Amino acid sequence: MFLYLMTGVGLAVALFLIFLGVNPFPLVVLLAMVWLVTSLQGGRISQGSFGAKKAANNKGSSTIPTTRFEEIGGQEHAKTELKEALDFLLHHERMEAYGIRPIKGILLAGPPGTGKTLMAKAAAHYTDSVFVSASGSEFVEKYVGVGAQRIRRLFQDARKAAKKNRKKSAIVFIDEIDVIGGKREGGQQREYDQTLNQLLTEMDGIYVDGDVRMLIMAATNRKEMLDPALLRPGRFDRHILVDLPDKQARLQILTLHARNKPLSPDVSLDKVAQDTFGFSGAQLESLTNEAAIYALRQGSEQLEPAHFQAAIDKVMMGEKTDRKAAHDEKLRVAIHELGHAIMAELVQPGSVSSVALSPRGQALGYVRQHPGQDRYLYTKEQLEGRIRVCLAGAAAEQLVLGSKSTGAQNDYEQANRYARGLVQSGLSERGIIDAELIAKSELHETTTKILNELQTRTEQQLASYLPLFEECTAILMRKEVLNGDEFRQLLREKASA
Amino acid sequence: MRQAKVLVGSLLVTLVVLMGGFLASQWWFVTKPIHQTLDQQSGLHPAKINVMPTEVRLHLYINPTYDFIQRYPRLLDKLEQTAGHRKLTVVLDNPRYPELEQAWSDLQFALREAVVTKRYTLIPDAVKQVARQHRLTYKVRIDERFVYVELQQADRTWRQVVPLQTDRAEALPS
Which residues cross the membrane (chain A) (predicted)? Predict the structure, then answer.
């Protein structure tokens, strides 16, 4: 809008100069050059796309987000901790009576998509504060001093927006703060240092406005990379971990996102939550959305369990690809996946969620397992079981077809990771070791020994299931996707036969 | 749509402000002082004053009783000071008297020739000859820039200012 206003003024001035008999061309060229340089230096600021600018320009209560803590699924611990910290802002008179120094900043740390931005917005709603946000990358510019200038402007705009909206507090939220708040080292650029210094100055409260209380919130998924000056008390006083949701939280998030979607009575969100271990809030939101898209594509009036299963596969593995495999290649993939699936059922009965022969992402086929319950610790037997599941694909190929293929490369990488985990956790024959002092060759020797032993065990176990492969492979090649229950049923039928 | 309104609105408002300011300043610093100068001169009436960014154009009506030859050169200097950097153009609105008009017409050839050839001493003789021919009285004056000519018959007068530099036209014949 400012641009249009200035264009009108510029045109009028040019017309007036023509009336005065002055040639306006040099002036127009000069103004165009000034505009060009300004827009190159701080285009985002001048055009109003900067978060703070937007907030300052917004009218009424639109700068106060409407997101409430109740609308954020899971993260109960983080919410409680955040609310406690925010109470310092709400009940500042009581805090003053006790001589408590107000909190300057809250750092939200956690993996991507866990709802850190939502938490910050909810915090602004909870404290009835003006919310001004910017991403760390918005402060990065090749011109020295521009980032620092933007920090200053961000804080100025937050104060202005609070006064304009007649609010007593403002929350400045900086997403991806690690971009500007990384550890300062000798080799780092001066521009980054200036930006960070300006942020520290603002946080120190040198430019204090008595009317508006400022709280700085920041989000990062690489907390360990932040400069210690940012993390000391008086800067970011509270560090809140916003972690991946557990099963209960996943169910809560799924329930929230499924609220406005027509669910079939057959859909068990509890089962979906069980199948989505390791999913973030954003991925769960994407999952419900994808399930609804599948239902729409199929013309189904309600979201069925199959739509959720397809959506989980899509979010986890990527979109289906059009790669057409030759018959012998498809057969090999089917045998490979059956090997994984049979071994998974042997290691942890009831853990297979689906066996698919349809190519997704980089995979030609896949077996999706759920852990049963969220697990954060593993025993030696459990890790060995996982290694056996990884090795079972290639082992099945060897048993049935008499040769292995390159399809097992990823499986071996994963098996090696588990084997290294076993050694480094002191669960191997080497006992407790210092991973930094042990030679790589020795580590490799131990892991290879573990893998070879487990490979032999896997082949022996699968050999007893060899008669099943022929029939199961034919069914899988025909149907392409078998869900966990279908697979277990098939396994039972063929085993009893 | 809103952007177009903002653009047009800002254009119009700026134009109004700039033009208003310009016209007001012209009136205050040029038109008003010219009026004041002319008011101090009895026998002169400004018929029209046009103030433009680069030029001031003034139409003057002069009474027959006005001592043109003595007072007008000084008046011209004052008006030029007031006009400042703008070019001053004074148009003398002489009433149409056929006989005086004819005399001026007869005089112009000799007058222009004297100016172009810079033989200024020929001017008084040329004026005298035409005045005698048409039975008129006359006055003539020259300074660094102009030749001032006044032809008179009873209470009828014809005044003209001819620039000595042929590319200048501060005073134009009516």
Answer: 12-37
